[in-house]
Design goal:
alpha+beta, 14 helices, 2-enoyl-CoA Hydratase, Chain A, domain 1, 36% helix
Length: 490
């Protein structure tokens, strides 16, 4: 009797177990359909990888090599999400035209033709990267910098040091403004970004020649204002590229500092040699650092939103704020003028916490320039949003729009090794991402983004060449004047 009862109970458990298992499977399947499947649908366009280039066939001619590269580029519209239907059609048409003359294009010609096609996206992050004279393409022995009064020579090879400080008025028969306008179609995004990057092209005869802006790829002629005020043409011959193919952008503003850097310009002469450097030019290779220009005033320069040994960015900024809170600080300056971006999550806590440390009457100054880009724009947006009315933006317009496409990755063409940045996640730092943009906005933005409004400077400042050459920083001077006025009674 007991045995039969036990057996009956076991049979009932066995019957119930499959039902339980079946119910669990149904619940899991429903969760997958209702949650995971939509999530995967949202994430896939952001995370799907660009296809690997097929094994390179033996290419005995430039035509064959370029055709292989262009065949790989054919995938680009399937991954670049910033393309409007009209821009995608224009890109496909442009690519067909490049293919028709593929046999005529050397590497520089392919690079510039591809850059012009890719820039049809009109998105600051969607560009051919590494189009830089002196690195992946040839260059004349000068380096250039923009100032409020024009374009000037800031660095030269030793044998051209007599050209230091000369103003560039034009090149190869065109004025500087005409050159910048002619180069505009090769850089996607706003006009000031194209101008910011223009020196990369202007120093490279082969890139200018490929764009139809020079008669030869071996040299360029520059109209320069000489020491006596006269204007004369100066012919400069290019030297070969100092480095191989590049897969990241180089920002010409880096050349404004004479502090030793890697690359072919390490031993050159600089217009600021022997000049006491202002703080903003003193530590370009430090991703981040801070100081106290006067009691109660914190200055933080973030040159890249990236970790750097020995202390990661988030931890460094947290430690700096702990230190500042103990002083305590009354006002703060965050200098993002040389910050071209990185991982925006690394600066989010800092940007929220810093305004909390300031008293109600404290001021927060954000310094920006055309080199302020990508994650630096995100950082500025947070600081403005959390700082509210206490924030004053000083400097120049940032290097991208407040709505832009980012994230994504790079496609590398198999023969030329040109790297093309494609983007997959939308950012809106003016209004914030809404539910209507769920299929386009970068998903982390629903955690991190803020409706910051405009980042246009409240106080527009760009140094003259004379300011720069004498070691002055007009942006910091403007901040100090504002703070002094606030301390003046009445």
């Amino acid at each position: 009797m007991t045995h039969e009862s036990t057996a009956s109970t076991t049979d009932r458990h066995r019957k119930r177990f499959p039902r339980w298992l079946k119910l669990s499977a149904i619940i899991i399947a429903v969760l997958v359909v209702l949650v995971l499947a939509p999530l995967a649908l949202l994430l896939y366009p952001t995370l799907k990888p660009y296809p690997k280039a097929p094994p390179i066939e033996t290419a005995v001619s430039q035509l064959d090599r370029n055709r292989q590269d262009l065949a790989h580029l054919r995938h680009f519209p399937d991954f670049e999400r910033s393309f409007t239907p009209e821009a995608k059609a224009a890109f496909t048409l442009a690519l067909g035209e490049i293919e028709q003359r593929a046999g005529e294009l050397d590497r520089a010609g392919l690079a510039m033709a591809t850059a012009k096609a890719v820039a049809l996206a009109d998105n600051g992050h969607t560009n051919v990267v590494g189009l830089v004279g002196g690195r992946s393409f040839n260059a004349v022995p000068i380096r250039l910098g923009w100032f409020s009064d024009g374009l000037f020579v800031v660095s030269t090879a030793e044998d051209q040091s007599h050209l230091l400080g000369r103003q560039i008025l034009g090149a190869n028969g065109k004025t500087t403004d005409e050159m910048v306008e002619a180069l505009r179609p090769y850089v996607g995004g706003p006009a000031n970004l194209a101008k910011e990057l223009a020196p990369n092209f202007l120093i490279s005869p082969e890139l200018l020649h490929a764009a139809g802006l020079g008669q030869t790829g071996a040299s360029s002629t520059y109209d320069m204002r000489l020491a006596d005020g006269s204007v004369a043409p100066v012919l400069l011959t290019a030297t070969p590229a100092g480095q191989g193919a590049q897969n990241t952008n180089f920002w010409p503003a880096r050349d404004l500092s004479p502090v030793a850097q890697t690359g072919d310009t390490a031993q050159w002469r600089h217009v600021l040699d022997g000049v006491a450097l202002p703080d903003y030019l003193a530590r370009p290779e430090s991703n981040y650092w801070h100081a106290y220009p006067e009691p109660g005033l914190l200055y933080v320069q973030i040159n890249r939103v990236r970790d750097q040994a020995p202390t990661g960015l988030s931890q460094y900024l947290s430690d700096a704020l702990d230190e500042a809170a103990a002083k305590p600080i009354r006002n703060a300056i965050v200098d993002l003028r040389f910050n071209s971006g990185g991982n925006y999550t690394l600066s989010s806590d800092f940007a929220q916490r810093l305004p909390e440390l300031l008293p109600p009457t404290g001021r927060l100054f954000i310094l920006t320039s055309g080199n302020t880009f990508s994650a630096a724009i995100s950082t500025a947006a947070w600081l403005k949003y959390y700082g509210g009315a206490r924030v004053t933006i000083v400097g120049e317009t940032v290097g991208d729009r407040m709505q832009f496409w980012g994230e994504g990755n790079r496609a590398v063409l198999p023969n030329s090794k040109l790297a093309i940045r494609y983007t997959t996640g939308f950012h809106d730092w003016e209004n914030g991402c809404g539910l209507a943009q769920l299929r386009t906005c970068f998903l982390l933005n629903y955690i991190y983004d803020v409706p910051a409004g405009s980042l246009e400077p409240n106080v527009k400042v760009k140094p003259t060449f004379a300011d720069y050459r004498s070691g002055k920083d007009p942006a910091i001077s403007a901040v100090m004047e504002i703070l002094a006025a606030a301390r003046t009674p009445g």
